[in-house]
Amino acid sequence: MTYRAPVRDLAFTLEAVAGMADVAATGAFPDYDADVASAVLEAAGQFSEEVLAPLNRIGDQKGSTYANGSVTAAPGFADAYRQFAAGGWTGLSAPTEAGGQALPKALELAAYETVHAANMAFGLCPMLSLASIEALEQVGTQEQKTKYLTKLVSGEWTGAMVLTEPGAGSDLGSLITTATPNGDGTYALNGQKIYITWGDHDATDNIIHLVLARLPDAPKGPKGISLFLTPKFAVNDDGTLGDRNAFRPVGVEHKLGIHASPTCVMSYEGATAELVGQPNQGLAHMFVMMNAARLAVGVEGVGIAERAYQHALAYALDRRQGRSVWTGEANAPIFDHPDVRRMLSVMKAKISAARGICLATGVAADLAKHAGTEEERRRWKGREDLFTPIAKAWSTDVGCEVASMGIQIHGGMGFIEETGAAQYYRDARIAPIYEGTNGIQAMDLVGRKLSMDGGESARALIADMKATLIDLGALYSGKPVERFATAIEAVQDATLWLLDQKADPNAAADVLAAADAYLKLLGDVVGGWMLAKGALAAKAKLDAQDGDPAWLQGKLDLYEVYAANVLGHVSSRLAAIGQGGELLQRMTVEALAG
Amino acid sequence: MTYRAPVRDLAFTLEAVAGMADVAATGAFPDYDADVASAVLEAAGQFSEEVLAPLNRIGDQKGSTYANGSVTAAPGFADAYRQFAAGGWTGLSAPTEAGGQALPKALELAAYETVHAANMAFGLCPMLSLASIEALEQVGTQEQKTKYLTKLVSGEWTGAMVLTEPGAGSDLGSLITTATPNGDGTYALNGQKIYITWGDHDATDNIIHLVLARLPDAPKGPKGISLFLTPKFAVNDDGTLGDRNAFRPVGVEHKLGIHASPTCVMSYEGATAELVGQPNQGLAHMFVMMNAARLAVGVEGVGIAERAYQHALAYALDRRQGRSVWTGEANAPIFDHPDVRRMLSVMKAKISAARGICLATGVAADLAKHAGTEEERRRWKGREDLFTPIAKAWSTDVGCEVASMGIQIHGGMGFIEETGAAQYYRDARIAPIYEGTNGIQAMDLVGRKLSMDGGESARALIADMKATLIDLGALYSGKPVERFATAIEAVQDATLWLLDQKADPNAAADVLAAADAYLKLLGDVVGGWMLAKGALAAKAKLDAQDGDPAWLQGKLDLYEVYAANVLGHVSSRLAAIGQGGELLQRMTVEALAG
Prior knowledge:
By secondary structure, the first copy, chain A, is an alpha+beta fold. In chain A, 57% of the residues lie in helices and 11% in strands. Chain A has helices at residues 7-18, 20-25, 34-52, 56-62, 77-86, 105-118, 120-139, 142-154, 282-318, 338-370, 374-410, 421-428, 438-449, 456-472, 479-502, 508-543, 549-565, 570-577, 581-586, 589-592; strands at 65-67, 70-72, 158-162, 178-181, 187-197, 207-213, 226-231, 233-235, 241-244, 247-252, 263-276.
């Protein structure tokens, strides 16, 4: 089974669904237009297909290995990484001053979807470099940028995010790694960190760790955390490498999936580090990269789902079993059985919805930086903030769900490791966990994002969806329109209710009890909005005879599939949103016992 | 993490939810009463906890192994199996004439839930013996019973179901293994079979294969399939073992999960076999065991979900992170965060619903055989037939979903294999596939079960649920009652609509397009019915001061959790039920392309 990058779909989603025209119109990306986008996607897709996809299975089987204080990447991965860097793929969105290509973030995300789809374990390495680039670009000193940023952008070195400790996962405020001033402006880091993705490897000469730690006498909790940079090898002023620093991996985890991505336990034993940004502002600085990384994880969900979907579609076209009720053919491809077609159609619809959400979030991020007026930038920042937890959580849930349906379509073969479907199911499972579990995303959404601007961003979203609803009436009549109308109404009701609850200090548990269902409601409905926009754009292209009619008509039908199979969820989301914290509190250990 | 058999819950579900009193009232089980049930469950639970659960992890790590034409069970498994057989666990429901204990099937299922929970890979071995026992008991000759059945009941030998071939999975009608008369009343089997669970192992001296094959000149397709019995070692008339038969495993599959359960590729090379039952009636005979096995697979789903749930609950009580909005405690157990409590409560509610459905199906199976009048037996047979695909499919989906939530509650730890949560997620994934994929179950439900008696069984179910709805009004007011009422109405509407469609030959694809959603609708609502019956029984016990009040109150609250989090799905099911085959047919390869 070969992975084929969905270049046409990605370009369509960027332009017609996510709204790249607005990004181009800012003038901030003079090198960007739709043709450039297609060329970039084509080239990225080709690299993913030809170099990364063929390594996916061996990466799963052999994994990265740890021995004697260092990690060796899975067979072929180090070489593939160097080709990746040489191709300029680590600097797509980085500023030209740092050697980047200054292309829109949204285009980079679309290109990276193909990387994650081809080889999710590989993709994590550059993904975390991009997050490090984002952080250094925003809060690094000029010297830090000169010394480190250019090498990260060129891909000569990689970056790692070093946050979690055994006692500090979702609650980073309780971390205890220390940073002690050395007296020369540098600091000595001491502590143990876990879950450090690509924390060590042999693909590059140096690895830059961005580490959260506490200064002496820092306040307790989240307000006493600072961000530090510590390189695996010291960097001399002329850019050459000096001594090995005092940190090392002490092991890699044996995981359910992404075996080729080394998940390191790291020990810092007086590692020499520089402060990045302001003392005690580490958590805020880290969130600069966390937000980028969360969106990137959402794209991982889309990528792994696309891969699983393609695998299942190919199998369904090949495998013959039973008589088709449609064609009457005996021993028909299972693709011609309605229940299999249903699964594939729903998979495709959810992938398209998640892709739309993630790329629309990328567009919002670009516009939050580059829109023409401060008012517009503020508005787009609100959209980016509101969408980021949805893009992360909803898309990674789709990744797991689609990978599971992919197994199901294979029947017994799906459970056999050699088939490959099982790897996607295993790999996909991490994405709802890392960069903030999906439960944390939901709490972020209802706890912070929803009310950050008095609910303005949510109201703007509802207004935008209503505008699309009106246009939709020209395409469909009856249920496909009614379902979107009902769905928008559900978002409106739930949003108003939640904003009311948030005003009541006694209702904090009710809000938290609603968080998961509210995020899923928004994901379902915004996903439907994306497909509706796709259908409208496809209709315009059909009318203009611009593109493959069967494929464009498919966009119209895909919205209908989504409306029938996903938008109906809104009533179950509303029921769960209103369940209340008190009911859950009554579910004590005694009540839950066997 | 130790598995604790939920003996109290199992006994409660049998008596108060599934309706074992009706089984006892038949008089067909003179040795059965509620105390016997508790004693059996207690003893089974103890065996599962002490002998089987400790082998679960090593079974996953080492697996069963294949070398030189034979399979060796995972470390400790052969010995555990012999203890299991010695304890009488292979003969719980078998007739006393064959050495069994003649207890109700439903009790056996409840006892086996603990086996599957403790060690799903182990449980498959006796589970398939039970299916073989069921088939031989119903269609074997007296000689076959004497020669083979008693050894299967005692557990001295095991049985295997040998159906699938590389070209014949869901469509068994296309199998090509041949059975050629040897002239002495025996047959020579030739062919290759795949996915033969515990097809070979070293735990017993002999293994009895029940094999589907074709006689010479048999009609093509499903009507030309016969059932054969072929033992690994010939059995002499005095019961001693003779020559090794001409079949052998040629490999075992490398699977996503249940590593300790050998999934054999078997080669039959002139294996000497006996015909079982009538020529060309093999598929019908096999369905005798398929139905039993399907229900047993549903129970596997419940078992693995229970195990994953217990693991997650223990972790949530132990792991501390963040401040609780309920208790105000800093660094609180994550159990005290509403979103974690929501997950655990929903897991528990779905497990309880699936347990209720499976055990109610077991009760229906017992009553289909033993109810006092033919009319009652017919009615209960209808219930058993209607419920079997739901029990299989809905419960195994719950198995996967709960195992996935179990990982999620563990956060990053969930993705680490050593934690154990990942094994449940991997193991659980097979259950929606084997013994007929869940898509096949849905097609069986809408294609055969729903209309087998003109819809009478479905109407009887709706009437029974309505009776419970009336009682429910005494327990709750408002939403918990309204949601069940709406849910029953949805079942009624969908059922009438489907029965209408089935009368229209042009609507076959519409029915198949609705199958999955209709099965899920029935599962959701019948599951709610089970919890409602549990709540009513718990209330009666509370009023009678009969039992732990916190635990009994928990049953009332659990129904509310289910009503808020699951019953709301009915509108999404209805939308998908009505999507129509034509919409799916429009989703061509061109439309689905990237």
